[in-house]
Structure formats: structure tokens, C-alpha cells
Amino acid sequence: MSGYEEMDFCKLDVDREERTGFPEVIFGLGKTPEQAEAIFGRIAEVHGRALVTRASAEMAERIQAAYPGAVYDPVSRLIRLDGEPKRLPGTVAVLTGGTSDIPVAEEAACTAEWMGCQVDRIYDVGVAGIHRLLAQMDRIRAASVVIAVAGMEGALASVAGGLVRRPVIAVPTSVGYGANLQGVTTMLAMLTSCASGVTVVNIDNGFGAAYQAAVILQLVAEASEK
Amino acid sequence: MSGYEEMDFCKLDVDREERTGFPEVIFGLGKTPEQAEAIFGRIAEVHGRALVTRASAEMAERIQAAYPGAVYDPVSRLIRLDGEPKRLPGTVAVLTGGTSDIPVAEEAACTAEWMGCQVDRIYDVGVAGIHRLLAQMDRIRAASVVIAVAGMEGALASVAGGLVRRPVIAVPTSVGYGANLQGVTTMLAMLTSCASGVTVVNIDNGFGAAYQAAVILQLVAEASEK
Amino acid sequence: MSGYEEMDFCKLDVDREERTGFPEVIFGLGKTPEQAEAIFGRIAEVHGRALVTRASAEMAERIQAAYPGAVYDPVSRLIRLDGEPKRLPGTVAVLTGGTSDIPVAEEAACTAEWMGCQVDRIYDVGVAGIHRLLAQMDRIRAASVVIAVAGMEGALASVAGGLVRRPVIAVPTSVGYGANLQGVTTMLAMLTSCASGVTVVNIDNGFGAAYQAAVILQLVAEASEK
Amino acid sequence: MSGYEEMDFCKLDVDREERTGFPEVIFGLGKTPEQAEAIFGRIAEVHGRALVTRASAEMAERIQAAYPGAVYDPVSRLIRLDGEPKRLPGTVAVLTGGTSDIPVAEEAACTAEWMGCQVDRIYDVGVAGIHRLLAQMDRIRAASVVIAVAGMEGALASVAGGLVRRPVIAVPTSVGYGANLQGVTTMLAMLTSCASGVTVVNIDNGFGAAYQAAVILQLVAEASEK
Amino acid sequence: MSGYEEMDFCKLDVDREERTGFPEVIFGLGKTPEQAEAIFGRIAEVHGRALVTRASAEMAERIQAAYPGAVYDPVSRLIRLDGEPKRLPGTVAVLTGGTSDIPVAEEAACTAEWMGCQVDRIYDVGVAGIHRLLAQMDRIRAASVVIAVAGMEGALASVAGGLVRRPVIAVPTSVGYGANLQGVTTMLAMLTSCASGVTVVNIDNGFGAAYQAAVILQLVAEASEK
Amino acid sequence: MSGYEEMDFCKLDVDREERTGFPEVIFGLGKTPEQAEAIFGRIAEVHGRALVTRASAEMAERIQAAYPGAVYDPVSRLIRLDGEPKRLPGTVAVLTGGTSDIPVAEEAACTAEWMGCQVDRIYDVGVAGIHRLLAQMDRIRAASVVIAVAGMEGALASVAGGLVRRPVIAVPTSVGYGANLQGVTTMLAMLTSCASGVTVVNIDNGFGAAYQAAVILQLVAEASEK
Amino acid sequence: MSGYEEMDFCKLDVDREERTGFPEVIFGLGKTPEQAEAIFGRIAEVHGRALVTRASAEMAERIQAAYPGAVYDPVSRLIRLDGEPKRLPGTVAVLTGGTSDIPVAEEAACTAEWMGCQVDRIYDVGVAGIHRLLAQMDRIRAASVVIAVAGMEGALASVAGGLVRRPVIAVPTSVGYGANLQGVTTMLAMLTSCASGVTVVNIDNGFGAAYQAAVILQLVAEASEK
Amino acid sequence: MSGYEEMDFCKLDVDREERTGFPEVIFGLGKTPEQAEAIFGRIAEVHGRALVTRASAEMAERIQAAYPGAVYDPVSRLIRLDGEPKRLPGTVAVLTGGTSDIPVAEEAACTAEWMGCQVDRIYDVGVAGIHRLLAQMDRIRAASVVIAVAGMEGALASVAGGLVRRPVIAVPTSVGYGANLQGVTTMLAMLTSCASGVTVVNIDNGFGAAYQAAVILQLVAEASEK
User: Fold this and answer.
1) How close is the nearest chain F Cα to the Cα of B3, in Å?
2) Number of other residues whose CB lies within 10 A of the CB of residue E144
3) What confidence tens digit (pLDDT) does each residue in C141-193 have?
4) How does DSSP classify residue B41?
5) Quick one: which of B152, B54, B188, E146 has its CA closest to C191?
6) Which among E124, E131, E177 has the least Cβ separation from residue H10?
7) Residue B157 and residue B59 share a domain
8) Which residues belong to any copy of the PurE domain (chains A, B, C, D, E, F, G, H) (predicted)?
């Protein structure tokens, strides 16, 4: 536990990759394009790769001007500069309840890819038409980690949780209205799920779920290497 | 719109059966055994049948002493005096997610029976083991009205709602802890269900769901008679 | 329980009409006009009719360009392509507390019509001037199903629930301010109604109430046919 | 603005009657019987009358031992020592939705009587059987101030508010369960009532409503005297 | 209890003045300018005076074009057409905690004036500088009814409530941020006030407080006339 | 997806071990001792091991009478019958913020042991004395999965999350008062943690965290075997 | 930052006095009497003084048996063993709104005394009788730090905050009912106070307020010594 | 307690500096630029210095045109006219968890400077990289008062609170999303902190924390002078 780098307006955690296996990721929300660019540049320099979440188009434009290798995806709102991450074993299945959950699912899927995971996208398998989910059981069961992204009542997490022998991470989305309370109901419902061992991240936090998934696969990789 | 009967401490809605098809039902909570008995007696006299919900054992004892035909069920907490209700067509399927939801489900099932419905109890078919639910699809689809009783995240309502061509009435229960918020999460989740046309009643309100089911079947009966 | 159709970004539930009696309805919120049009087109092709709820003007313009028979109503925000739905028996009465509740009521009324119901609109009969409601009792009692649409304290549902022998479905609206909490108070008040057997749908969910009403009338129709 | 009296554990507001027209009333909750008795005694000495709200039986026993003229009513939980209050003009109508609201209504009615009002009790006129309320319209309209005591969705306040030309004070009660949220829903619903000019007091605060009613009639009395 | 007038989109409560003493007031929020104008016109015709609350500038422009006597005040957002209301006795004191509460206070003050009251505006007397309030005690005590308009913690209601012998009506405003929860905290705090007999209306509901004040003074007037 | 066993009051998911790697665990809350014993017996018969969570002393007594090998721990409230679970690789570190969090931590630790994990208990390392946590860094970093159990503001999860390269699962406890809101604040705080990739389970749900941990280590084991 | 002492079930922060000026205080809630006694004993040995908050009578009995110098006060629920604390300069004024707030106020007052402060208790000066507060202004203004303890709407904090040139620490209490929400309303109201620079602690947390007051006076003492 | 100055729309508390040590500060939110300028002018005239918080750019422009010495900082949204405040002893350390908290921290820092404090800004020391905080311990411990500004789960307050012997004032910020509930979670978490004696101000209320810090240092200054 040691070094960080003093920048003008922040303290860059350059030791983070050694400590946790992954470089610091830039949370774009609430940062100016200038701040994001400065941090992005320094991280790219040190680690050879960088990631911004919740990035605005303006932020992307500025960063891409300086770093032509950086790619911006307006759906997931990620700016990625892919280095050569260590390839992690297994796959991460990313499920969504509906089409409106796709932006959050893409934040998860692209983050996981940036971190070295192979991703299987299985979208629009919400429980109101349960046969759509059941028809995908083979793909879902083949995954090492399952990320269940859903809004409204979030029942996808419970149903998926009861079907697989792998860790299920639930991502509540703010898709819904009224009694949904901007995703708070979804989040609470997932936390009180009747399925054992489903864990939950913050509303719309596709990044967080992917991060945990990658950390799990990093554990698998390092355990296998021993 | 006309008559009611002035009792010592309340105004008895004796016209209710003519107006709505069913006599007034006594909500036991917050009434003294004396009050419950007095109303029970008068309703039994006028209508030949009576029902108390949320009844205490003490209340039951007192009423049964006076009305030996009255039956008390400690699970559903109902006191029933069955008259000869008009037999309603079709069946009401009452589903539960788990075994802890049974008291609320029994309140629904017994109320529906008292109102003249035939009931099919399909318990412990929660979504964490979805094959238990799917194995019962024939019975569920044979019902005229489906009452889905569940606690925790209440996903049963959404899954059932997507599978049947009949009205689904969801009853959230207060089974759960922490993020469940004494059933408030379950209730909100059911209201924001991704399934079309699921309607919801208050937490633990098995009576209300059964009442609506019976009213629907009364409509069917009266429509068929025409 | 079987087939669905894999589209580019979603899984279309083409079996739904056979399973539930009605084609899948498109929830417009959170979909791009392109997505809405694509699904609309495929549903129209398969079922000969289609419905979009919460549609934007832009979405309507695009769909109407491709499907001139589609009608857009900016008040209810529905895009309808009416096929030849099976005519359902009876009528659905749609009540509102005030004039501000009309958009939600129209979502209910037009959805019910699209599903084959005959609708009786009884608007502005809120309880602060109870004689307006009482003056309409004959029309309300003539209905097979009553949908009570109200904002603020939502008392209309309780008063209506006590007056009729038919199912009452309450739709809380987000009309109100302050203590109304964007309709959450209305919704909770309707759920804790003193009237027996009122069921409730999500805030502003006129569609959901109409769907349940049509499902009830479909039950009546199918029961009569037997 | 001047005097108060220093007691051992509190500061008695002996000027209050001159300032506001009524002596300080003792809120029993959270006080020991000893404290209640000490304050009661001093107030009785100064003003010739005293009132304790939310009194326990133990508190009553102790006070009655010392002040035989004090009367305890276990329903309203009031201990009253009636002096010779100034007789206030008009009447206060106290309405309840159901029988479970009676304890709170009695707190209101007895407080108003202690303060010099004439009270008309009109109980069990909840809106689920609206004809019971309408049948009492003459008595309700004859009142100078109307106190509407109701639990559950609290619709009584809105209906009453639309019918009379007099101030309506709504008292939400904690009668209900689930979505009722221990009366919070009732309270919020009354605050967002569609009736003009209904004012609201705290949950179960029959005392507060009666106090305001008496203050209004005191204003009438003093205005007439001029 | 009888007549109302069927308009195109609403049912006008023309009997209201006879029943309650005041014509129906138009709640502008959620109405189109066309709807507001149509109702305004009919009310003006029947009663010779009219009032719109929460009116937009566009609504005002349209109404003023048709009814040159109508006056619009952008601070209180009221459109008034003053007839010759019955002059009510006494005065209504309208207090505010700060300058940001003035719009709500003006809604109260102008409504009260339109209803026939004399108003004394006592602004910016919040409790963080208690001497400002104490310096106005003579004016406050001279009033027949006190309306206390305050945001933030709303302590003005409690302090005022303890000082006067007249009804105090508290109006919570949405002035504040963070823990204020858009005025919900203020409202709850006023409801749990330590002062006896303060009643409360909805957040920012200056109209409701004024309405109740006028109804009280109407009672005084009618009592004096007898 | 296939078989379950119909018991008198429930449907036993006997296929669960094959499907997920672990037998069904009995949630004791809301079950009668008779029900718990019956399920326990059947699971023990089929799988050779069983676990009850949230077990009462009475439940334990009854089960131990029938199954002398069953062990009851009143702190964690678990009844365990240990079979010969597959030994899982690595260790699970269970951290607590304070001594009051130990019952929840023990539920986690003992569940993990029952599922085949090796557990390292690191208790009372809350952040108000951060050096206690830092002094344990070697043990914490040696773990394969970290479970952080904490009440109050739950900061332990954020601090731990920033220090390790392994999955961190946070368990909010209901330890605290007032603003803690029975653990809801802790839970929300952990969900909005500034550390990347911390996932969260329900309040006091030590079982759920342990289950996910064991599932992760099962993945590691099965990946290594390949 | 260094040493702590490993006890059987916890890690004792023996360095705390050197680091912060005060020994660790034992939070009694959720600890067994045995645990409390063990920690008490070790702290008394190391520091010569000890304090337990939220102590039960049983806990006190056990500790007093072993440490006869320990004093238990059932009102404040503190067990104190007073060493010879450094006498801190100035005084701490502890105010309460009513008599029901006294237990929390005593927790504050006795804690401050144990930490070396001189305390001035000024009780029952709530704002509903503002002259009681104003009559004590000299004593309040003479204090170095003011602790304002109040329940209900908590207005005392705002009024006091506007009157003094010294730090005001507000302690919301859970005294109240209904809209008080067990003190949550009080707490939020104090946080959104219109007075500048009032800081707030948790509901009923008299200890926390006193701790901060003592830390402020320790700063004064150490600054004066320089 | 005496004088204030009647302005057109408010009552200026000109005595405030004498009473509390500091002139009244203008809360910009909800005031028009005209109102802000008028009050600013009068305060500047009386006290020779003035401060506006939550100022808009338009407000700043108008005030700077009239008072060229006034300085506007768009980050902290303060307009300052610095007079010659009494220099207060010691320093105030202002900490932030991340870069997004800087605007609130600057409101605190600049307010403290305007009030006469020396400020040490220690930004971006959030607990997810605890070594950044530990590396600054010497600076933090050198401060007389610590202001901890953080969003998300707000753990910085707890960690800092356990490390220093000086008053810690926590400022929750609205930085975060979802479960953060616009800073409400942060605020509640800080209030239920496991660290002793941390006090809390409203969300984003940097001003309030600085005000309390300055009042503490004023106490130190006045105590030292004696």
C-alpha cells in the first residue's frame, strides 16, 4: 500500500493495477471533459489502456481527438482504449429483461470485455414470456458468471438465480415508472429475492457487476495457474 | 341506494347483498369480541351467512358459543357461517410462492369458497424453482381467475401473468425481511410488474383478492343467465 | 408454451395471442422510433392489428408513414392499428375524478376498444362534488367492469367500490402535487381502500386496467360460448 | 408575554389561559404518573380544570386518588377535571369512517366538550357505503365545525369537505395495515384531498382537531360579543 | 344536493356557491388554456366572479383577452375576476418565514381577498431571528385567523401557534434543499408541531389555507348575523 | 429441469443439488417446528446433509431429538447436519465492523463451512479505528473471497473493496438506531459505495453472502478440475 | 497510528486516548453483560475511567459488582467510572424542548461531565411557549457550546441557533408520534434548519453531541495552553 | 435582542454581527437578482463585507456591476466582498472524497476564509484508496477543525472521525446515483457513523459546515483573549 500520483485536481491511484489487477476506471459523471481527458491521458500512459464510464459525447470527442485509438459507444456511454488485457477464462453471460435494459447491459458487457472477459449477450428474456428464457438455458448454464439486468419488478434475477450453479449478479435498472420509483423498487426486490445467493449492485450499475464478474474470473485464472 | 340499520356503535349496511351480491363482511381487526359478535349475529339473522376476517381466537370462541354453526380456522383467521351461497361457475386457482404465504392464501381460498367459488390450491410454486410452477400449468390454465400470493420479490405474479389468458390478481405478503420492508417492496414490485394486466391488492389482503375473484365469477354467472 | 421470433434487438412473442387471447402490445417508452416501427410492422403482419402505448409524436409519424391505417391519439399517446378484434360482451365504464385525469382514462378507454370492448366514458365525477357521481349511478351500474381513474387522494375508487356489484379496477394518476408524491399517495390510498375488492394497477397505467377489464370480458365471452 | 412557573422538572405555562383562552393541556405520553400528577395538581389549582391526553390507567388511578373529581375514560384515554368552561356557541360534528376510529373520535369529542363545545357524534359513516353519510347530511350541515376522523384511505374528509360550508378538520387514524403505513398514507391522502380547504392534523391527533375547533368557536363567541 | 352543468369535457359544479358560500375555483395545473378559459367564462357568467390558481402566463393571456376585467399576478400565479364578494369580518394575518415563501403567501393572501377577507401581510419573520417575529406580535394577535407560511424546518408554525388565541393554519413550502425533501420535511414537521391546534395543508397550498380562513370568517359572519 | 417431490405442505426441490451443486437450504423463519423437521428429515435422507437458517431453539430441539447428529448454534441460529461436502479450494475471509455484527457473521461463516469452504474470521475491524483493519491486511489479502459484515454506515465494505484483488460481498446488518433505519441506510450506503465491484445482499443475510462465496469457489474448483 | 489490544471477541483501541484525548466509550446496545464487563474492566485498568452508554440494568448490576466505584443512572442509561479527567474550560448548556426529552439530555449532560465539562441544564424551554426560552437567554449565551435536545418538530434548534454566537449541536429525539416518524422528521427538520451553522447528530444520540462539545472545549483548552 | 431594518420585501437582521459575530449571509437560491443586490448593498454598507451563497451568474453580474470589489467564483457559487474580518486562530482542513465533491468543498473553504479562517484544502482522499488519506494524516491532524465532504456512502467521515482529536463536521454531497437517493443515503450514513462525535449538516451545505467551524474558532479566539 503505497504510491499515488498527485495531479492538479486529484490523486491518481497508479498502484491500483498492481493491487487489484485492473487500472483505475474513470467515472465520467460530474467530471469536466478537461478533467476526464487529463486523467485518461495519464492512465493510458501508465497502463496502456483506459476506460471512462458515463461519458458524454463532448467528453468522447475531446478524448478521441487526443487519443485516436479510443472508441466511444453512445449506447453504453463508455470510452475504451483497449490495451492487451490478460485474457480471462470462461464466459460472462449478460441477460436483459427487455430491450430498454440494453444500455445498462452494454455497459456491463463492454466493461467485462475491456477487462479481458469473453461475453455472451442474451437479451430480451424477461419473465413475462418465460419460454424465451427457458429456450436459452444451455447458453446461460454454459457461462461462468451470470449478470441479470432488469427493470420493473426485476424478477429475472430470481428466476435465473434458481436455474444455475454459477454466481448471479443482479443489476436493477431504472426502466419503469410510478411504483418503480426510478429503479428503487427493482433494487429492493432483487435484494429480497427468493433465490439463494444472488448479489446486487446499484441501480443502472452495469460497470459494477462486470467488475465483480471479472474479479471472479481473475481469481479462477490465478487459481488455475498455481 | 337506501337502507342501513342503526346499531349501538355502528351502522349496518343491510342493503349490501342486494346492491353488490354479497353481505357485508366483518373486518375483525380493531373490533372487540363483543362488537364482532353483535354484528355477526345481526348479519347471520338477515342473510343466513356471515364471515369475519382477521379474527382472534377469543373472538371465535365467543361467536361459536352463540352460533354453533360458525367455524373458525386459525390459519386463515376466518370465522365462517356458511349459508347456501349461489354456486358460482368456473374455478379460482390460488397460488403461493412458498409455505410461509399459506395463511394469506387460505384467507383468499376460504373467502372465495364462502362466496360460492370452487377453489384449486396450488401452493409452493415460487420462481426460484421454476419447474415446480411449469409442472402445474394445466391446472393453472384451467382456472377462470388466478390469485397469485407471494412474498419477498413477488415474481410469481409476473411469471403467472405471462402464462394465462385469465385475470391474475396479485396478493403481496409480508413474508421476508430487511429490504422487503414488511411487504411494501413486494407490493410495489407487483405493481410495476412486466406482465400485462396484473392487478394488485393490499399486503396480506387475501380477502380482497378473493372478493374481486368472486365478483368476476358473479358477472360470468349473471351474463350466462341472460 | 413454445415459439417466439428472434428479431435483431428483441424476441417477439408471436405465440402470445394464442396463449392469452391478445397480441403483444408495444410499450413505447424507452424504445427508439426505429425499434417501435420494426416491432409494430412484424406484429401487424402476424396479427393484423397492433398497439403502441406511451408513444411519442415522432414515433407516430414514422409508423404512420409506413402503416397509413395506424391512428395516433396525442391525448392517450396510443398508436392503434385496429384489426377485427373479437367483439367482447358488456361494457367497460371508465370514470375520472377530474379533467386532468383524462389522458390516463383515454389510454384505458382506447386500449379497451382496441381489445374489443364497448366503453362508456363517465368523466369528472370526483368525490368533492359527490352528486355528480350519484347522478351517473345508472350508467355506472350498467357496466360489466368499472375502471376508476383518479389522482390526488383517489377517493373515487372507494366510493365507486361500495356502489356496484361488478369488478372495480382503480388507476391512480400522478395528478396532484406535494403530499401527493407523484401519485404514490394516490396509489397507496387506493390499495388501503375501505371498499372490498377494489384492485389497483400502477400509477398512470390506464393500459393495465383496460387489459384486465378485457381479459375479464373475454372470460365472460368464452364462458357464455360453452 | 411573561410568566411561567418553575416546577421541579418543568416550566408550567400558567399564563397560557390568558394568552390563548385555554389552560395548558398535559400530554401524558412519555411522562411518569408522578410527573403527570404534579402538573395536574398545579393546573387544577390555578385554573380549576385540567385535562390529560394519552393517559395510562396507572396515571389515572394516581390522579383520581388525589383528585376525586377527575374522570378517566379508557376509550379516549383522557383524564378530565371539568371546571366551568365558558360555553361556546354552535356545535362540533365529529364523524368517523368506521368503528375502529372511535377512540380517536372520542379524544376529539371529549376534548371539545372539556373546552366548552357542544358535540354531535356521527359515527360509522365511511364512504364505502355512501348512503350512510348522505343520510346524515342535515346533522352534518347543522354543525359549525366538522371533524372528520378516518383511517385507511381517508376519503371521508374529501367527501365531507365538498358537502359543507363550514371548516372541515381531518384527523387521519392509524387504522389499517400494509399500504396504510400506520396512518401515513391516510394523512398524506387527506393533505392531497381534492376538496378545497380541508386542513389536517397529525395521525390519531383527535385532541389537536378539537383544539382548533374550540379556538374557532371561541373566535365566533368573542366576535359576537363585540 | 342537486345540480351541476355538463360541459364538453367536465361537469361544472354551479350549485357550489349556494352549498358552500363560494363559487368553484379553477385549479389551473394540468388544464389547457382552452379548458381554463371555457370554465372561467361559464363561472364568471353564473357567479359574476372567478379565480384560477396555478395559472400559466399563456392561460392568463387567453383569459384576459376574453375577460378584460381579469387580473393576472405572476407571483401568486392567480387570475382573478373580482365580483362583489360579501365582505367578511376580521382580518387574516399571512406570515412568512423568508422572502422565498412570498409566492405561496401571495397565493394565500390574494385568494383570501378574492373571497372577501381583509388581509395583513407580515413577511420575513422567520425564527432564526426571533425578535423580528416578536416585534410584530401586536399585529399578529389582532388577526382573526393566522396563516403561517414557511419552508425549511417550518418552525414558524410552532412559535406562532404558541402565541395566539386564534386558529393557526400552517402552509409548508417547498423552499429548501437536501433534507428538506421538496417540502415533505416541512410538512411533516408542522404536523408534529409541539404547539396545540395548528392545522396543516398541502405543500405550497396557499389557496387551501386561505379557503379555510375564509370559511371560518364566513362562519363568524353568519353567526353574528343570527 | 425436472423433478421435485410433493410433500404434504410443500414441493421439495430434490434436483437442486444436481442443478446447482448444493442441496436446498431450509429458511426457518415462518415455518413451524413440525414443517422444519419434516423437510429437514427428507433432505437429510436424500442428500446426507441439511441446513436450517433462522432456526428457533424450539425448532432445534425437535430436530435434534430426531437427528442427533444435527448441531444447533444459537448465535448464528443455524441447525447443521454436516455430510461430507466436497472441500472447496481457497479461503473465505469474514470481516465484521464490530462485536454486534458477529451473529450475522457467524451465519455467513458457518454456512460457508457447511458448503465446504475454509473460513478465516477477522472480527471487530471497523473503520473508526482503521489501524485495526490495516493490521489484518495480510490475512484479508490471502483470502479468495471477502465477506464484509457491518452495520451503522457500513464503511467497512468500501475500505475493504479498495484494498483487495478478490470479490468483496457486503452484508449490511441492522446494528444501529435512528438514522440507521433498521439497516436500510447501511444497505443503501453499501450499494452506493465508492469502491468498484462490491456486491451487496439483503440486511442481515449472512447466508446469502456465504452462498455466493461458495458458488464462486465451486466455480474455481470445477475450472481447476478441467 | 499503532496499537490495539486483542481481546477474546474484540480489538480494544487502547491508543485511542492518546490519539483523540478520550478513552474508547462502550456502546452497550447489542453487547452481552459479560462482554460489557470485560471491556469495562480492561478500559478501567488502562485509563482509570470508563463509560458505558445505553446500558441495561442487568449490565449495570454486573459491572457494579466488580467495580464498586461505577455509578449507574437509569434515566440516562449510563454507567460511569469517573477518573480524574482534565477539567475543560467554559460550560456546555444542555437545553430540552420538553420533559420527555430529559433522558436524552441527561445522556448528553452526564457524558460531558465524564469528559471533563461543566454543564448547565436548561430544561423544558420548547418554542410553543417561547417566553420560557427567552427568559433563559443569559444562561444560554453564557455557555461555550449549546446542545439543543428536542423531539416533535425540533424547532428549538433553529430558534437557539439564531440567538447565540457559539456552536449549537442539535439532538433530535424520538419523542412524538405519527408524522414524527420515530424522530426521523425531527432529524430532517433540524438538518434543514433556517439557522446558520447548526450541526446535527443521530436521533437520541445525546452521547455524540456531548462528545463533540467536549472535543471543542479540548481544542479551546489546548489552544489556550499554547 | 433588538433591531432589524425593514426593507421593501424583507427584514434585514442588522444586529446579527453583534449578536453572533458575523453579518447575515445571503442565501441566493430563490431570490431574484434585484433582491440579492438590494440586500447585498445594505449589508455591505453596514458591515463592510458581504457574502452570497448559491449565487447565479446573472446575480453575480448585477452585483459586481454595482460593487466592483465583489468577487464571484462559479465553482463554489459564492459572491464575496471581503472586508477586514478578524483573523481567527488555527486552521480548518477541508477534505473531499473525490473530485466531484469539490464545488461543495469550495463553498465550505471560501466561506471559512471569508469568515476569517485559514483553510487547508486536502482533496480526493476517498476511502476506496485509503493510502491517499493516510498519507495526509499529518496535515489533517494539524487542523483545529476538520470538514469532511463526501458523496456516495460517505465513509470518509467515519474514517476521519476515528483518526483526529478535533471536531469533525461531515458534509454529505449529492454526488452519486440510484441508491444514493440524491445524497439522502450519504446524509443518513454519516448520521449513523460508527465514529464518535461526528456532527452532520444538510446535503451539499458546505456553507453550514464552514459557519460552525468559524464559530468554533471564534470561541477559541475569544477564550484565548480572556
Assistant:
1) 44
2) 23
3) 999 999 999 999 999 999 999 999 999 999 999 999 999 999 999 999 999 99
4) H
5) B188
6) E124
7) no
8) 90-222
Residue type, C143: A
Which candidate from A1, A4, A203 shows the least CB-CB separation from H177? Answer: A203
Residue C150 in grid coordinates? 383518479
For residue B122, the one-letter residue type is I
Domains identified in chain F, total number: 2
Residues A69 and A104 in one domain: no
- Disruptive mutation site among C136, C177, C185 for chain E (greatest number of E CBs within 10 Å): C177
Grid coordinates given for G20: 483523540
Q: Name the grid cell of D77.
A: 384515554
Confirm if B187 and B167 have CB atoms less than 8 A apart: no
pLDDT 10s digit of each residue in chain E, 226 long?
A: 456 888 878 888 888 888 889 999 999 988 999 999 999 999 999 999 999 999 999 999 999 999 999 999 999 999 999 988 889 999 999 999 999 999 999 999 999 999 999 999 999 999 988 889 999 999 999 999 999 999 999 999 999 999 999 999 999 999 999 999 999 999 999 999 988 889 999 999 999 999 999 999 999 999 988 7
Is residue A57 domain-resident? yes
Adjacent-strand bridge partners of C137: none
- Do E116 and E20 sit in the same domain of this protein? no
Closest by Cα among H185, H110, H114, H183 to H147 = H110
Instruction: Please tell me the distance from the alpha carbon of residue G7 to that of residue G5, in angstroms, as a whole number.
Output: 6
- Same domain, residue pair D36 and D132: no
Q: Amino acid identity, residue D189?
A: A
ipTM of the complex: 0.95
D199 falls within a domain: yes
Q: Which grid coordinates are listed for D41?
A: 395538581
CB contact under 8 A, H218 and G165: yes
Instruction: For residue C158, give the nearest of D128, D134, D181 by CB distance.
Output: D128
Average pLDDT in the A74-102 region? 94
For residue G122, the cross-strand partners are G95
| CATH number assigned to the domain comprising residue G197 | 3.40.50.1970
D132: left (phi over 0), alpha (psi -120 to 50) or beta: alpha
Q: What is the pLDDT of residues A154-173, one digit of tens each?
A: 999 999 999 999 999 999 99
Positive/negative CA dihedral, E131, E135, E136, E138 = positive
**What pLDDT, on the 0 to 100 scale, is given for residue F59?**
97
**Closest partner CB to A220 (pick from F192, F197, F220):** F220
Closest CA to G6 of F139, H127, H192: F139
Question: Which residues of chain G fall short of a pLDDT of 70?
Answer: 1-3
3-state helix, strand, coil in chain B (%, to 5): 45, 20, 35
Q: Identify the segments of chain F with pLDDT beneath 70.
A: 1-3
Q: What is the pLDDT of residue F85?
A: 81
SS3 assignment, position E194: coil
Cβ(A200)–Cβ(A172) under 8 Å? yes
Tens-place pLDDT, residues C118-152: 999 999 999 988 889 999 999 999 999 999 999 99
- Largest Cα separation within chain D, whole Å, is 55
Contact (Cβ atoms closer than 8 angstroms) between residue F224 and residue F196:
no
Q: Which of B218, B199, B143, B151 is nearest to B178 (CA)?
A: B151
Among B99, B136, B152, B174, the residue to mutate for chain F (most F Cβ within 10 A): B99
Q: Which residues of E touch C177 (CB under 8 A)?
A: 29, 202-204
β-partners of residue H150 are: H172
Which structural domain, as residue segments, surrounds residue E99? 91-223
Look up the pTM and report it. Answer: 0.96
**Residues F175, G10: C-beta atoms closer than 8 Å:** no
B50 with B155, same domain: the answer is: no
Contact F127, F156 (CB under 8 A): yes
Cβ–Cβ contact C2 with A under 8 A: yes
Residues E120 and E67 in one domain: no
Element spanning E156, H or E: helix E155-161
